[in-house]
Design a protein that fits this description.
The chain is an alpha+beta fold and 612 residues long. Among the domains are: 132 residues, Methane Monooxygenase Hydroxylase, Chain G, domain 1, CATH 1.20.58; 156 residues, no CATH class; 112 residues, no CATH class. Helix content is 71%, strand content 7%. The protein contains 11 helices and 7 strands. The strands form 2 sheets. Strands 4-7-3-6-5 form a 5-stranded mixed beta sheet. It has a two-stranded antiparallel sheet with strand order 1-2. α5 runs antiparallel to α9, α5 packs antiparallel against α10 and α10 packs across α11.
């Protein structure tokens, strides 16, 4: 289409050119006619012949070309129309396909929602099964907890009675002592000298508030399902007695937890002190070792110094050739290596090598000077020989001094190193002594810290006892409330059974009772699957109450019942149930929806279902 559009644009340009040419010819003809009319000249054949060529061009070339271009443009427009129709059909097909895909997506979404709802229901049922599976273990734990709580109450009562007796005996002793003091000194003192001097000791009373009375009378339980071991309340009382003695009343002996902890701490401190002592001894031994090594190096240095001072280097005569200085140096090096052995100190080796290099350079310079002054040396041969001999001796003495200086520098560096190590070891010994003194003084703060921990432990136990008493009081109150509500339910059940017999007698009097199929109960709370009997009781009571309402044709009743359920899991109940009473109509339990309201009262909306 784009190519054809470009072709049409080219054709348009060509048509515009032809139109322009025709317009120019028309203007020329119109101008000629206008001039002829204005001049009132008669048209002759010559004036018309000059337009024949233009007319021939128009008829043979321009007009056929315009027709050809018009046909081509018409074909292009036809092709455009066909393409437009094809695009319209394609768009319509795409829209229909999109509609089908949207429909399939909606179907899939509905299916996904149904599957999600089914999955949530199965998950809730699975949670119920998990709770049912854990129920036996929790039941055994509940039995153990009941026995332990009753044993705890008994132990606390006995211990408090025992301590009351001890405190009373101690108070009696204090009372006797005060009476003796008054008999001995009270007669001699003015009565208003000290206020309260004649008062008796204060009264101390320890009392335990029993909150375990509401627990069932369970005195033993089986420890495991696959074992025959029976744990009684007496056994648990013994364990609690021992635990109470170990925690609340720690004795002075080593059986107390705090005493054991203190003993372990002291043991660790002793071990640490022994380890530090051993480390100190090791450092002292190492220090002695370095001191011995330092003394040996000093002795070796003195011996080397003495040997260097007492050693007489050989006097080597120099020949006339002037080349035996290198031989004398090599011989000197051999004698030094024989005397001192292999020199390993890098400082000494560097000093000796520098001196040998300097001696060789001086030898070369002397040789050059000897070659230049050969004539003068021939005249003064004896004096030159003496000079060379003195130079050889000077070289040997300087070499010995260089070696001795290098040895002294090495010994000084080693002594400085030993002194640094000695200072470090001394600092380490002082630090170890300070740590040892600190460790000796450390157990007393430990004891203070342990006493603070013991006081904090007593405070925590007192808070725990207070919270336990409050929770047990709340549990007792809830149990009493549940008991009262259960009695009300039983009473309502008896009333429903009693009134159920009257339904048959009043059946003829009530016109609306036979028009209802049953009841639909909508519960806006959590409910357990074991409460189906409660549903039936509600339905029966609703039927009886409905039979008493004479004027109501389609009643909707509201009944308030007690909510008795320990489970917070939702439950979905659907189906039909037939009442046990013959004259009570059928009823249907609706869906049970879970909400966050956990009040003790639950509102049941019960409406009647009419028969078709």
């Amino acid at each position: 289409l784009s190519g054809e559009l470009k072709l049409c644009q080219n054709k348009l340009k060509e048509m515009q050119q032809i139109d322009k040419l025709l317009s120019e010819d028309l203007q020329q003809v119109q101008g000629t006619i206008a001039s002829a009319v204005s001049e009132l000249q008669n048209a002759n054949g010559l004036s018309m012949e000059r337009f024949d060529q233009s007319n021939e061009q128009h008829l043979t070339t321009l007009l056929p070309r315009l027709r050809t271009i018009d046909g081509e443009v018409f074909n292009v427009l036809t092709h455009f129309q066909e393409a437009q129709m094809a695009m319209r059909n394609l768009f319509a097909d795409g829209v229909s396909m999109v509609a089908e895909l949207q429909k399939s997506l909606m179907d899939e979404n509905n299916k996904l929602a149904a599957l999600s709802e089914s999955l949530s229901r199965k998950q809730e049922l699975f949670d119920q099964l998990v709770k049912v599976k854990k129920l036996p273990q929790s039941y055994v734990g509940c039995l153990e907890e009941v026995v332990r709580r009753r044993a705890f109450g008994q132990v606390m009562s006995k211990e408090l009675s025992h301590w009351n007796e001890i405190f009373n005996q101690y108070r009696e002793k204090e009372t006797i002592r005060r009476i003796e003091f008054l008999h001995e000194h009270g007669w001699n003192l003015p009565s208003d000298l000290v206020a309260g001097l004649s008062n008796k000791p204060g009264v101390c009373e320890l009392r335990y508030q029993h909150l375990e009375d509401g627990l069932p009378l369970i005195e033993s339980f089986q420890k495991a399902a696959n074992s025959n071991e029976i744990v009684t309340q007496v056994d648990i009382e013994k364990q609690l007695q021992q635990s109470l003695v170990q925690t609340l009343l720690p004795p002075v002996d080593n059986k107390s937890d705090l005493s054991v902890e203190l003993k372990n701490t002291q043991k660790l401190l002793k071990e640490k002190a022994l380890a530090l002592t051993r480390q100190k001894e090791e450092f002292e031994n190492e220090l002695k070792k370095w001191q011995i090594q330092n003394s040996e190096l000093k002795k070796e240095r003195n011996s080397l110094k003495y040997e260097l001072e007492s050693y007489q280097l050989p006097v080597i005569e120099k020949s006339r050739s002037g080349n035996n200085v290198e031989d004398s140096l090599n011989l000197l090096e051999a004698q030094l290596s024989k005397m001192f052995g292999n020199i390993q100190d890098p400082m000494v080796l560097s000093r000796v090598n520098q001196y040998f290099t300097r001696a060789l350079n001086e030898n070369n310079n002397n040789n050059n000077n000897n070659n230049i002054n050969s004539n003068s040396n021939n005249n003064n041969g004896v004096s030159n020989g003496n000079n060379h001999k003195n130079k050889d001796q000077e070289i040997q003495v300087n070499l010995a001094n260089e070696i001795m200086a290098a040895e002294m520098d090495s010994v000084k560096a080693e002594a400085l190193k030993l002194k640094t190590q000695n200072d470090l070891l001394s600092d380490r010994v002082r630090k170890l002594n300070y740590e040892n003194e600190a460790l000796r003084e450390e157990p007393e703060p430990k004891l203070v810290h342990l006493n603070e921990m013991q006081e904090a432990l007593f405070d925590l136990k007192h808070k725990y006892t207070t919270l336990t008493q409050e929770s047990e009081a709340e549990n007792r109150r809830l149990l009493l409330t549940i008991k009262e509500l259960t009695e009300e339910l039983e009473k309502s059940q008896k009333d429903s059974i009693t009134n159920g017999g009257n339904v048959k007698e009043e059946k003829d009097m009530e016109k609306g009772i036979t028009n209802f199929k049953g009841f639909r109960i909508c519960i806006d709370e959590n409910f357990n699957t074991g409460d189906l009997l409660l549903f039936k009781r509600i339905a029966k009571r609703a039927a009886v109450d409905h039979s008493k309402e004479k004027e109501s044709r389609n009643p909707s009743m509201t009944i308030y019942m007690a909510f008795i359920s320990d489970s917070n899991s939702p439950c979905f109940l659907e189906g039909e149930f037939v009442s046990e009473m013959k004259n009570t109509p059928e009823w249907i339990v609706g869906k049970v929806a879970r909400k966050k309201d956990t009040s003790l009262k639950v509102k049941y909306n019960i409406s009647f279902i009419q028969n078709k």
